[in-house]
Design goal:
This protein is of the alpha+beta class and about 375 residues long. The chain has helices spanning about 5-15, 90-105, 125-145, 150-165, 170-180, 220-240, 250-255, 265-290, 290-310, 315-325, 350-365, and strands spanning about 20-30, 45, 45-60, 65-70, 75-80, 110-115, 185-190, 195-200, 205-215, 330-335, 340-350, 370-375, 385. The relative contact order is 0.17.
Length: about 375
């Protein structure tokens, strides 16, 4: 069921003083192609989805934030002036956004808030970015006399991940959540911040997420490890080619040149990123021509790279990708950071019903549980609802 304003408002009234505040929404996102390229200054190609986060907020006349997570049934209160902040990870997203907005000169005051989301957790649709974005947008709207631009709001969310949650993420998720536009995907240059909307209404095809409902517990921080691999290789290439500041600037020839100066693992990860940079641009050209066969081919190439070179797949995701190939699906790949979550699939209308049936039965037969099918509708970005 789709989350509504009433779902959030009824809980806000129940948990606070019986009055109402302002309601804001920010979406999760899909990414057609361009995975793990954002922190390498490359290109990404996301779109906002209809699922997201809804938050009700009302100033409370104190320096404290009183926050209730409807989904987790958890309440946290913290002071805006406490540099350490709350321990609960979900509350640290809100705390981090408040602190980053204050650092930008926004005179944030204490408030009461309740929020909920219908972005599937662990599906690679960036529920965390939706949470950051809804509060960044709301605080800008409520307290900002000189309004901050949308890209800066996205950077507030990114800084929150870095400083308060320990995830050294790129800018794509927050960018897509803030800037989304119904019926359009966006090509973002993660170095310059320049972006372009691409109308996306693929006649004869559907975008379908297949959620494995698996999120593998991982030792350490594989996301940050991969980012370090990319930075290591870029630094070595830079010694030979000073113009190379990140893997965005490198090509296969440069990578081969330093093959003996980097680890085999770092080499393979860099190889994936350089290839993915080219695939994003190829998909943009193909979309402008209505060439969805090429789009699909590049999606399969990306999955191979993520699985075999970047090593962020898992047996469940590879199995879903294999089924898509066997059933003649135009394109399929891991979406998101990996190690679980979803595949994103470009499925022709005539194959859709059979694909859904087959993928559910085969996956359940092998792994003992049905995957969840999520039909993608491209929606709007951060906004005030009432």
């Amino acid at each position: 069921m789709k989350l509504t304003i009433d779902d959030v408002r009824s809980r806000f009234i129940e948990h606070f003083d019986g009055t109402t505040g302002s309601v804001y929404a920010s979406p999760g996102r899909i990414n057609l192609i361009g995975e793990h390229t954002d922190y390498n200054d490359g290109f990404v190609f996301p779109g906002a989805v209809q699922q997201g986060m809804i938050a009700e907020i009302k100033v409370n006349g104190t320096r404290n934030v009183r926050a209730y997570s409807i989904d987790l049934k958890d309440y946290v209160e913290f002071s805006l002036d406490d540099e350490k902040g709350p321990k609960a990870s979900w509350a640290r997203y809100i705390f981090g956004v408040c602190r980053e907005m204050m650092a930008l000169g926004i005179p944030v005051e204490g408030f009461n808030t309740a929020f909920a989301g219908d972005v599937p957790l662990g599906a690679g649709m960036s529920s965390s970015a939706a949470l950051e974005s809804v509060y960044a947008f709301a605080l800008n709207d409520m307290f900002g006399e000189n309004k901050i631009d949308k890209m800066t709001l996205a950077k507030v969310g990114q800084a929150t991940e870095h400083k308060y949650l320990g995830c050294n993420c790129g800018i794509m998720d927050q960018f897509a959540s803030v800037h989304g536009k119904a019926g359009s995907l966006m090509r973002l240059d993660c170095r310059s911040g320049e972006f372009e909307y691409f109308p996306f209404d693929p006649k004869g095809y559907k975008l379908v997420l297949v959620n494995s409902c698996v999120k593998h517990e991982l030792v350490g921080s594989p996301y940050n490890d991969r980012r370090r691999s990319c930075e290591n290789v870029a630094a070595v290439i830079n010694k030979h080619h000073p113009e190379v500041k990140s893997l965005r600037d490198a090509d296969y020839a440069m990578l081969d040149e330093v093959k003996n100066e980097v680890s085999a693992e770092d080499f393979m990860r860099a190889k994936y990123v350089i290839g993915e940079k080219e695939r994003v641009l190829a998909v943009c050209d193909a979309l402008e021509k209505g060439d969805y066969e090429t789009v699909g081919q590049k999606m399969y190439e990306t999955h191979y790279g993520l699985s075999k070179e970047y090593e962020v797949s898992c047996p469940e995701l590879d199995f879903l990708n294999d089924i898509a190939k066997e059933e003649g699906v135009t394109g399929s790949r891991i979406m998101g950071g990996g190690f679980g979550g979803c595949t994103i699939n470009l499925v022709s209308d005539e194959l859709y019903d059979n694909f859904v049936k087959v993928v559910k039965s085969k996956f359940k037969e092998k792994f003992g549980k049905e995957p969840v099918i999520i039909d993608v509708v491209i929606g709007d970005g951060s906004r005030k609802l009432c």
